Fold:
Amino acid sequence: MEESQVFEKLNQLQADLSARFALEDEIVKLPRDLKVKQELLNRINLEYIEEHERSEAAKIELKTLRIQYEEAVRARENSEKQMELISTQREFEALEKEIKDAAAKEQSLLKQLHVKDKQVNEFGERLTDKEELMSLQKAEVDDETSKIEALLTEKQAALDALNKKCDSYKGEEISEDLFNKFSNIVRNKKGKGIVPVHGLVCQGCHVVLPVQFVNDVRSADKIEFCPYCSRILYYEEIEGADEQFRKSLSDVEIEEGGLADFVDSGEFDDLL
Structure:
């Protein structure tokens, strides 16, 4: 097979590899999207558990306050009944103080009871809101899970087909070693593993290449890799490219066979 045909085959492989890598990235990303939603659901569940524990503690405190309040009411009432039995001023004064103290305790407990009862009701409202939020989030996670599982099945089937297609390129023209190198280049160079040379400029990294090296690329006797960006190179005839390039570099010395300095690709927009 001629080198031009090999380059054409590499270009086709590049397209399939790019599609394969894109699918692999999508397959990795899909569960991440679901993970974010699942983490939110877990956080809501944890908040609900913590809120429920505080609510239960408040209910216990409310129950205790009610018992204390009822005891305070009974104590006051018993003291008031004893007023009918006293016979001395001293007993009257002592019992009167006892009744006042019991009434003050009763009122204090009643206030605490109202505050705690309100707190318990607020806990209940917040728990109801969180239950609704949990239900909505769980439904969203379940729906997303179903969609992602279906997509993963679909994309994995497409990826299996692409893997098989990419493997079919391996052979006499594209060895296992070249296939692996090219795959790494395509992945690392954002889908561009093989690029043309216009004039003396690599169209992958836009760096001026040595004249002799470009002649080797032009001859296409073997596969050449850019010494700067590592991409596979092939020469592409562009009308007037060499002439325009040399004119643009008329004041720049380029030693035959040496590596040229980097150039501003903007100077060669009509070449690239």
Notes: Helices lie at 3-82, 89-167, 176-188, 211-219, 241-248. The longest strand covers residues 194-198.
